[in-house]
Amino acid sequence: MGRKSKQEYLLAIWGRYQRVGRRFKSKILDEFCEVCGYSRKYAIGLLNRKPGQRRHRPGPRRRYDAQVLEPLKFIWRQAEQMCSKRLKAALPVWLPFYEQRQGRLSEAVRTKLLRISPATIDRRLKKTRARYPARGLSGTRCGRQLKYQIPIRTDNRDIDRPGFLEADTVAHCGTSMAGSFIWSLTLTDIFRFIRQV
Question: CB–CB of 36/6 below 8 Å?
Answer without folding.
Answer: yes
